Amino acid sequence: MSTVLPPSTSPAMAQPSGSSGSSASPTAQAVQFPADLQTIKPGQSIQASVQSIHVQPGQKATLIQVQTAIGPMSLQTTLTVPKGAVLSLVLTQSGPQPTLVIASINGQPVPGAQAAAQSAQAGA
User: Fold this and answer.
1) What is the 3 state secondary structure string of 3-71?
2) Long-range contacts (CB closer than 8 Å, 24 or more residues apart) made by 53-61
3) What is the pLDDT of residues 54-108, one digit of tens each?
4) What CA–CA distance (Å, rounded) separates 2 from 102?
5) What's the CA gap between 67 and 47, in Å, rounded?
6) How many other β-carbons are positioned within 10 Å of the β-carbon of residue 98?
């Protein structure tokens, strides 16, 4: 006789819509971004709408084009995000190639995002 365990109801285990369920990192590198991104302090968040997705052959990362209140940005990430999704991004590192954590997709928390943001803040 086997034991059946109840499913986890932890919100940290929820997969955002469009997620592949893989262990992709919730971080993104800003490849192209408006100068105003430099005025945002690490730890602050910004909303972004996914305009287009470009799969890069032979690479694990995907290039996504997003529109934000400060202008358009190109982000490189291994996380699967659907076109048209609304992202909540948290700046974790500024500079010539800013790093952001994708905290949520369409309002659903991204697994590992909180830990990634805290880790980046601790290393700063």
Assistant:
1) CCCCCCCCHHHCCCCCCCCCCCCCEEEEEECCHHHHHCCCCCEEEEEEEEEEECCCCCCEEEEEEECCE
2) 53/81, 53/83
3) 987 888 889 999 999 999 999 999 999 999 999 999 999 998 899 999 999 999 9
4) 39
5) 8
6) 21
